[in-house]
Amino acid sequence: MTLNIGVIGTGAIGRDHIRRLSHTLRGSRVVAVTDINAAQASRVVQEEGISAEVYADGHALIGAADVQAVVVTSWGPTHEEYVLAAIAAGKPVFCEKPLAVTAEGCKRIVDAEQAYGRRLVQVGFMRPYDAGYRQLKAVLDGDRIGAPLMIHAAHRNPTVADSYSTDMAITDTLIHEINVLAWLLDDQYVSAQVVFPRKAPKALEHLRDPQIVLLETAKGVRIDVEVFVNCQYGYDIQCEVVGERGIARLPEPTTVQLRSEARLSNEILMDWKDRFIDAYDVELQAFIDDLARGQLTGPSSWDGYLAAVTADACISAQNSGAIVPISLPERPAFYG
Ligand SMILES: NC(=O)c1ccc[n+]([C@@H]2O[C@H](COP(=O)([O-])OP(=O)(O)OC[C@H]3O[C@@H](n4cnc5c(N)ncnc54)[C@H](O)[C@@H]3O)[C@@H](O)[C@H]2O)c1
User: Fold this and answer.
1) Whose Cα sits closest to atom 6 in ligand 1?
2) Domain range spanning residue 68?
3) What's the rounded Cα separation, in Å, for the pair 31 and 61?
4) Residue 311 placed within a domain
5) Counting C-beta atoms within 10 Å of the first and last residue's C-beta, which end of the chain has fewer, N or C?
6) Number of domains in the chain
7) Tell me: the pLDDT tens digits for 306-317?
8) CATH code where residue 52 lies
9) Which residues of 157-176 are buried (b: 16+ CB within 10 A; e: fewer)?
10) Helix, strand, or coil here: 51?
11) pLDDT digits (tens, 9 = 90+) for 201-228
């Protein structure tokens, strides 16, 4: 069976998802697209060589009879409206992060989905689908290093656009660590603090970069995440778990090891799209396969909500310099 998908937003990740849904994955085809930049949407349809109808807006696309599932890849502030519309239409929806730009918005989605009575939403947190993180989780779940005590993590980008602001280091960047580290530890956060080292010379005037986010979990694990988005040298994701009896590190992406000119070296990736290309494939394939089986199992709107609550605490910690308590609600049985 082939799932007919409509994609809202044909920018960077939208186009990437259209490509994989059309040419890489099994059991899906893109039958509808829309973007406020209609010319761009038409160009993507043409360049990807697909026969999808270009709709005037996201609501017309969600209402189209042949659209069985929706992928939301438009700008963050538009996500809540489209996810709520998809739930109202009873159509499954894969929404890129953020699920909504406020925790209250995420909660409205959680409430609407529960009122509908069945999971319809998967959030685009792809790190739990990355082979390296899955290996790391297997080590922890298999008790190979004892209980985790600390995590040292880093999220580094070579550069960011001028529009990137200090709070986006949380909502756009750290949000992936917030999601994946809670999943890795099967734990949740109880407090956050943010400290700022000396500013990097390449950081734009309005941006405080780098930053160190300190998180504490309910089980007492202490986490430090360095967020450094002007590091220049590459897109580099690090994660080291210190356990009672050993240390487990996220594997480096596979690259050719070079012996040349008196050096032993490995290339470092520059683009996030390359670093997690397989994870994006696996997460969307899981969405398609889960729908064929009748039950979504990937990151839920509840995970989107928890990430938003934690992100709010981190932003408050950025502004106050204080240790900000995080009080997360119990996960409802509906979300497993
Ligand atoms: N999971 C990840 O690793 C990951 C990576 C990149 C982006 N994202 C998320 O995906 C979303 C899109 O990011 P991007 O980098 O592709 O941005 P982008 O700016 O390249 O593309 C967004 C597109 O949405 C369109 N758009 C905006 N409002 C719209 C509306 N109301 N209806 C239809 N189209 C609309 C814009 O015209 C643009 O083409 C963001 O929320 C971002 O955080 C997630």
Assistant:
1) 13
2) 3-123
3) 10
4) yes
5) N
6) 2
7) 999 999 999 999
8) 3.40.50.720
9) bbebeeebebebbbbbbbbb
10) coil
11) 999 999 999 999 999 999 999 999 999 9
